[in-house]
Every structure is written in structure tokens, then in C-alpha cells.
Specification:
Quinone Oxidoreductase, Chain A, domain 1; globular; 26% strand; binds zinc ion; Rossmann fold; 29% helix; 7-stranded mixed sheet; alpha/beta; 12 helices
Length: 349
């Protein structure tokens, strides 16, 4: 089959790889219907994280189950499924505590699992899914083609934006500022609105993204950054800062922006993959009673809650995909996102 392999920074190839096989009783083989490129895939693409040897890449996909192992109970061939960006059993103590990203038997796409098989990367024609009952979420009934982008966001970005909002404790009537206008930041706007925030400030400098932010529920746009950005947020929030700030980038600058845009007693929900080493200024947080909560989003646990709203059209996160390419053009998909020509690229095998 064909799958995407990263060979080195800026060297993405779609090439022939071994077909996946059922290697434990708990596996499923999924034919990928759609996959996508994640902002975090850009770290190895840009060489920020090293690629020592060629490896499979991609961790967001939806597809149709082709085969299951003898021990699989909840997944049936023919099911349309959403895969979260990681593997989890759904039964261990961390999964039961709602932190399935810390699953004791879990793992990551594009690498060996803990059971003796290989969990394929998501940007390919097929994937062997370990722990299929815990990992995969079934979408009931027939799935229309135009539903696919929205369903694919539940693999990562919509669930991650939701995690930022939940971690920050967004409630009805809150003012919320969102730092970051990538797909996760845009989905965080959707999540904040869905949880009842009434003032939603999108921090974005890009006209197309500002427009999407407004469509998703942003009531105000702040294009300024740094000190000016904080001033603008305060002007919009009775001079004190936002009740909740959702940090969706992961840099030192974005975390600083988030902390200083939060009102005394408020909370930052952070989901940006830390890169460039943001560190917390505890003395500043102490003095203003600003809290920080969040981390890698346990999106598998959010799919059941968000799926009905995606299917009904109450929320339309699929609009974050502004470019669709065949799998064979994965290299162009990476380049388009790297150069910010696209917010998020959907790949069709
Ligand atoms: Zn687990």
C-alpha cells in the first residue's frame, strides 16, 4: 500500500510500504477515507525536532473497518470509525480517569505498539489499529461525504480545542480570549461558544482566519500582539483581562500572551504542544491568582460528546480544512501548511 514517510526535514514522500496485518486479537484494519496534516507534524517537517531515520507520519484519520481480530467486540467490518491521535485501551485506570492519552497500554501512530505489532501512520491507505475497541469511535449509520471533514476534526483539533476550553473552565457568560489562529485555536473558539461564552476574543493577524474566527463565534478580533494585544484584551473585558484564556500555540511568547491576558483569578487552558520551552512565571501567577490547566488533549473521551453536534451541524469544525489534496500530494500538503497558505489540509487516499 501507499503511505507517507518523512525522510528528513522538508523531505516528505508517499511510497510503497508493507500492507498492515492483524497481529493481535484486539486489532482492526482500517481503510483510510480521509487523513490530514497536523500543526505538530510541522515540527519534524521544519527540522525543529530531528528525523534520524525515515519513518511513517500522520496521526489523524477516519475510515472504514475492513477486518477485526478475534477478540474485538465493539467494532465490526464496515463500520465508519474515527481514530483519535493515539492508541488507548479505554479500560486502564488512566483511561477511566479521563486521561486516555496516558493509557498504560497505549501508544502512538507510526510506531511499534506495546503488543508486538506496528501501528501504521494515519497518512496512508490503511492502518493497523491496536486495541481497536478502546481506540476507535464508531459513527453510526450511513456517513455522507460532506460529513467527512467535520468527523475528521474529532480525531484531534476539535477535541483539542474543546480540551482547552474545558481545562480553562469555560462557563456560560464568560469572556474568553483565544491565543492562536491555527486549526486548534479556531476550534477552541467553537468550543468556547458551545460552552456558553458570550465574549470571545480571537487573537489573529490573518484576514481569512479572522473571518473564520467570526464565523465560529468570535465576537472580537485582536490583531495586536505582546503588550498592545494585552491592552486590547483588557479594553474588551472591563479593563481586567479575560475570565478564561485558551493557549493554542505552545511557544514562550504565546504562553506569556495568555497569562497576561487573563484577569486576576482567571484560568489559562493550554493545549499548544510546548516548543521553544515556555516556562511558568510562578511569582506573577501567585500575585494575580492566575491558574494554568491543560495538556495533551484526551480527545477519545470527547468524541461521544461532540459527535452529535458535528452531525447535526450545530458546530461546523470541518471548515478548518481549506485545502484538499490526494494522498500522493502529501508533500505539497506539508508545504502549504508550513508556508501558511492553508490552515489545514485534508488528504484523500
Ligand atoms: Zn488505558
Amino acid at each position: 500500500m501507499l503511505a507517507t514517510v518523512i525522510h528528513a526535514a522538508r523531505d516528505i514522500r508517499v511510497e510503497e510500504v508493507p500492507d498492515p496485518v492483524l497481529s493481535t486479537g484486539g486489532d482492526a484494519i482500517v481503510r483510510v477515507v480521509a487523513a490530514c496534516v497536523c500543526g505538530s507534524d510541522l515540527w519534524p517537517y521544519r527540522g525543529v525536532t530531528a528525523t534520524d531515520e525515515p519513518h511513517r507520519i500522520g496521526h489523524e484519520f477516519v475510515g472504514v473497518v475492513e477486518a477485526v481480530g478475534d477478540d474485538v467486540r465493539d467494532i465490526t467490518p464496515g463500520d465508519f470509525v474515527i481514530a483519535p491521535f493515539y492508541v488507548c485501551d479505554g479500560t486502564c485506570v488512566n483511561c477511566r480517569n479521563g486521561v486516555s492519552t496516558s493509557c498504560l497500554t497505549g501508544g502512538w501512530w507510526g510506531s511499534a505498539d506495546r503488543l508486538g505489532g506496528f501501528a501504521d501512520g494515519g497518512q496512508g491507505e490503511r492502518v493497523r489499529v491496536p486495541l481497536a475497541d478502546g481506540t476507535l469511535a464508531v459513527v453510526p449509520g450511513p456517513v455522507a461525504d460532506d460529513e467527512i471533514p467535520g468527523l475528521l476534526t474529532l480525531s484531534d483539533v476539535m477535541g483539542t480545542g474543546h480540551h482547552a476550553a474545558v481545562s480553562a473552565g469555560v462557563q456560560a457568560g464568560d469572556s474568553v480570549a483565544v491565543v492562536g489562529d491555527g486549526a486548534v485555536g479556531l476550534c477552541a473558539i467553537i468550543a468556547a461558544k458551545r460552552l456558553g461564552a458570550t465574549t470571545i476574543i480571537a487573537m489573529s493577524r490573518h484576514p481569512e482566519r479572522q473571518e473564520l474566527a467570526r464565523r465560529f463565534g468570535a465576537t472580537h478580533i485582536v490583531a495586536e500582539r505582546g503588550k498592545d494585544g494585552i491592552e486590547r484584551v483588557r479594553e474588551l473585558t472591563d479593563g481586567i483581562g479575560a475570565d478564561r484564556v485558551l493557549e493554542c500555540v505552545g511557544t514562550k511568547e504565546s504562553m506569556d500572551q495568555a497569562l497576561r491576558s487573563t484577569r486576576p483569578g482567571g484560568m489559562v487552558g493550554y493545549v499548544g504542544v510546548p516548543n521553544g520551552g515556555p516556562e511558568l512565571p510562578i511569582a506573577q501567577m501567585f500575585g494575580r491568582n492566575v491558574g494554568v490547566n491543560g495538556g495533551v488533549a484526551p480527545v477519545r473521551g470527547y468524541i461521544d460528546e461532540l459527535l452529535p453536534d458535528v452531525r447535526s451541524g450545530a458546530i461546523v469544525p470541518g471548515l478548518v480544512f481549506d485545502l484538499e489534496l490526494p494522498l500522493g500530494e502529501a508533500a505539497e500538503a506539508y508545504a502549504a501548511m508550513d508556508e501558511r497558505r492553508a490552515v489545514k489540509v485534508l488528504l484523500r487516499p
